[in-house]
């Protein structure tokens, strides 16, 4: 605030040119403050936030950086992971973040960084915490980040991949259906 | 001020209830979910933004890049506090006020759209090894997963036994909304066996497959009692094809065995005679009309016929098909019987102005002299004679063999490439009969005429390129070729991979291939 006041003073004194130069030189990177449903606060660059189509549209609609923005339905843990992902991938041209290119590259494999990223969403036994994966997937869906949605759904599929039905039910805490219902499903 | 309960998975409860209730309502609901979500988030976002002024003092703004130190312990269990959102929109408010029973808090649910994406990542029937085991498991996990997994299971269907085709036929043939939905879900259907009775039943339900894009049937015969009739595919396939053409307007690719429809080759089956008559009638009708293609909306652009011609002059089913389906983009012909090469009359080639992909394998003849007259340059050309059979193809009347039949020559191919080869991305001339000198001539010509080429298959057991080792001299031509075709990635050399092993590849060759960024089958990646 003090700095801005100085600039205003400068321009008043007929040194607007210098003021503008200084302004463009020291122009701070546009940042967005996000507050999660559990009152965690994060500050992110506009470029990082724009990985999320939700924020991108919002920033376009509001024509500028709004004051601290409440992100409902996303926890601090999820948003931290999302920011970690977006910070890495916002400069990564190899990793598509739109649905069309993701669809056209269906046989894409999970990259090295992404693999580590998913591996870090684990518990102390080294197993992926499926509820963390699911929570993060939903948060990514909420914030509309196609690249992260792809990564998360792929990781969940990998969790399901070689497992028998009973184990899948156990992982997702799906109650075992009644015999009759099971019969209907089998059919 | 409205209070919105957020359950343990971070989704508002009303959303979850909505998903439960619409369970298997299908694509329409699901595809709009994204849109709705977006709109709602925008609203709630703005509402929250508007409300933050009053709560500004509750948190530190600006420089809290780091997460709260105890966030991990707080969120591992993923228990979320209640969120109070001011001015949540009226509809949400009224729903969240309604009494509801909380579901099992530990149960993990995903919205249908996300569930669909998860299942997309599981191997379907196109992956032969998996046999859809994962998808079939997920389909029986619970009622919420069932419709989504079924949708994926039924999109690409491979039936490989009479039992499977019968259960497929029974399922979609029994009527009702769910059967209709499953039937319209089918996009590609491949049959990898041939069974007369099963096919007969199948023909009766074909009309339900309205969304079908690709139909392919092969003949890996299962328990067929009369070996002599193995290749005499008669009325059933023609009935199926007719039904497909009549009732599947979106069909794009049709891959069928060559039908044989004459009473002589069919034998004495009374049912088949009636089928045959229908076919003949429709053929004669089309002749009298002079134009079968009355429906301009056909999507069918690919036709593949495999098998053998049964006797001379019996090409009318193929002719009928070619005339019926409209301008083809893709044409594949395959036959392994040198006595009866599969043929399409020369006149038909002129009616294929849009042809871009031509694949001929084995004993195929007659179409190709007129290929040079097609309108556009080809994108893919396969002229491969499987199992070392004579490939009788010609690219001009001057290339005639001793029996005055056109033969496939290096000069003919080069002439064709200069005229119609500029768009080729794949060229397969495996099992050709060229001498090494002629083949290298062709390769030079390819380098000059096909700048977009990505795949080149020259594999042949007849070439003199045999040897125990691959020295630089055998791949040196690639350097020039790569200059002309910068996109070239995959090459099969003019050797027989069945005989030669790639164990004696020299380091220089591997280095050259790495430099050129070209993979050679069984050499770069043995």
From TrEMBL, chain A:
Task of the protein: Essential component of the SCF (SKP1-CUL1-F-box protein) E3 ubiquitin ligase complexes, which mediate the ubiquitination and subsequent proteasomal degradation of target proteins.
GO process annotations (BP): protein ubiquitination; ubiquitin-dependent protein catabolic process
Pfam families given in the database record: Skp1 (PF01466), Skp1_POZ (PF03931)
Disordered: region residues: 1-30
Organism: Blyttiomyces helicus
Domain SKP1 component POZ: 31-89
Compositionally skewed regions (Polar residues) per UniProt: 7-22
Keywords annotated in UniProt: Ubl conjugation pathway
Family: Belongs to the SKP1 family.
Subunit structure: Component of the SCF (SKP1-CUL1-F-box protein) E3 ubiquitin ligase complexes.
Pathways per UniProt: Protein modification; protein ubiquitination
Span of domain SKP1 component dimerisation: 147-184
Protein name: E3 ubiquitin ligase complex SCF subunit
TrEMBL record, chain B:
Region Disordered: start-end pairs: 1-77, 262-295
Family matches, as InterPro entries: F-box-like_dom_sf (IPR036047), F-box_dom (IPR001810)
F-box domain ranges (all copies): 109-158
Bias type Acidic residues, positions: 284-295
Alphabetized SUPFAM superfamilies for the sequence: F-box domain
A UniProt-annotated Pfam family: F-box-like
Basic and acidic residues bias spans: 8-28, 53-73
Protein name as catalogued: F-box domain-containing protein
């Amino acid at each position: 605030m003090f700095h801005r006041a100085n600039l205003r003073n400068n321009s008043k004194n007929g040194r607007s040119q210098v003021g503008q130069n200084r302004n463009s030189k020291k122009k701070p990177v546009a940042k967005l403050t996000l507050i999660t449903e559990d009152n965690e606060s994060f500050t992110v660059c506009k470029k990082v936030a724009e990985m999320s189509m939700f924020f991108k549209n919002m920033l376009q609609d509001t024509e500028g950086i709004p004051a601290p923005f409440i992100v409902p339905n996303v926890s601090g843990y999820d948003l931290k992971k999302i920011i970690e992902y977006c910070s890495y991938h916002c400069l990564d041209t190899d990793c598509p973040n739109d649905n069309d290119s993701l669809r056209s590259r269906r046989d894409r494999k999970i990259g090295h960084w992404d693999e580590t990223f998913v591996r870090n969403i684990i518990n102390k036994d080294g197993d992926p915490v499926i509820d963390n994966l699911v929570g993060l997937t939903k948060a990514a869906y909420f914030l509309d980040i196609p690249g992260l949605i792809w990564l998360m759904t792929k990781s969940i599929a990998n969790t399901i991949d070689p497992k028998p039905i009973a184990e899948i039910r156990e992982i997702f805490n799906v109650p075992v259906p009644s015999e009759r219902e099971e019969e209907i499903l089998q059919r | 001020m409205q209070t919105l309960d957020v359950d343990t998975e971070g989704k508002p409860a009303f959303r979850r209830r909505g998903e439960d209730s619409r369970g298997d309502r299908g694509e329409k609901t699901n595809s709009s979910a994204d849109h709705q979500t977006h709109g709602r988030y925008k609203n709630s976002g703005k509402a929250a933004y508007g409300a933050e002024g009053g709560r500004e003092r509750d948190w530190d703004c600006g420089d809290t890049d780091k997460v709260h130190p105890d966030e991990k312990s707080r969120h591992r269990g993923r228990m979320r506090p209640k969120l109070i959102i001011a001015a949540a929109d009226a509809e949400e408010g009224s729903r969240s006020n309604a009494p509801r029973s909380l579901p099992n808090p530990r149960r993990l649910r995903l919205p249908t759209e996300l569930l669909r994406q998860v299942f997309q990542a599981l191997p379907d029937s196109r992956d032969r090894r998996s046999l859809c085991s994962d998808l079939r498991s997920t389909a029986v996990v619970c009622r919420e997963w069932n419709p989504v997994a079924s949708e994926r299971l039924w999109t690409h269907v491979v039936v490989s036994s009479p039992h499977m085709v019968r259960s497929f036929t029974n399922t979609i043939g029994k009527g009702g909304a769910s059967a209709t939905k499953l039937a319209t879900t089918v996009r590609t259907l491949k049959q990898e066996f041939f069974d007369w009775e099963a096919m007969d039943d199948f023909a009766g339900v074909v009309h339900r497959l309205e969304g079908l894009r690709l139909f392919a049937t092969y003949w890996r015969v299962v328990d067929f009692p009369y070996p002599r009739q193995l290749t005499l595919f008669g009325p059933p396939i023609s009935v199926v094809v007719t039904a497909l053409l009549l009732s599947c307007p979106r069909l794009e690719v049709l891959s069928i065995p060559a039908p044989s429809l004459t009473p002589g080759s069919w034998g004495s089956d009374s049912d088949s005679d009636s089928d045959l008559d229908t076919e003949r009638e429709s053929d004669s009708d089309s002749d009298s009309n002079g134009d079968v293609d009355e429906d301009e909306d056909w999507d069918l652009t690919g036709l593949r016929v495999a098998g053998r011609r049964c006797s001379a002059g019996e090409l009318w089913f193929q002719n009928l098909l070619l005339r019926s389906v409209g301008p083809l983009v893709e044409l594949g012909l395959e036959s392994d019987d040198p006595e009866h090469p599969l043929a399409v009359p020369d006149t038909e080639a002129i009616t294929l102005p849009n042809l871009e992909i031509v694949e001929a394998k084995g004993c195929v003849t007659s179409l190709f002299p007129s290929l040079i007259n097609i309108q556009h340059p080809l994108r893919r050309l396969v002229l491969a004679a499987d199992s070392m059979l004579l490939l009788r193809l010609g690219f001009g009347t001057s290339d005639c063999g001793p029996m005055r039949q056109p033969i496939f020559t290096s000069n003919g191919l080069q002439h064709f490439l200069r005229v119609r080869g500029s768009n080729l991305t794949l060229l397969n001339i495996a099992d050709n009969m060229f001498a090494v000198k002629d083949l290298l001539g062709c390769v030079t010509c390819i380098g000059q005429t096909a700048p977009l080429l990505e795949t080149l298959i020259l594999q042949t057991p007849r070439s003199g390129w045999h040897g125990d080792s691959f020295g630089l001299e055998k791949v040196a031509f690639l350097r020039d070729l790569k200059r002309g075709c910068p996109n070239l990635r995959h090459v099969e050399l003019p050797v027989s991979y069945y005989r030669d092993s790639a164990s004696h590849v020299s380091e220089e060759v591997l280095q050259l291939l790495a430099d050129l960024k070209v993979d050679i089958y069984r050499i770069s990646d043995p």
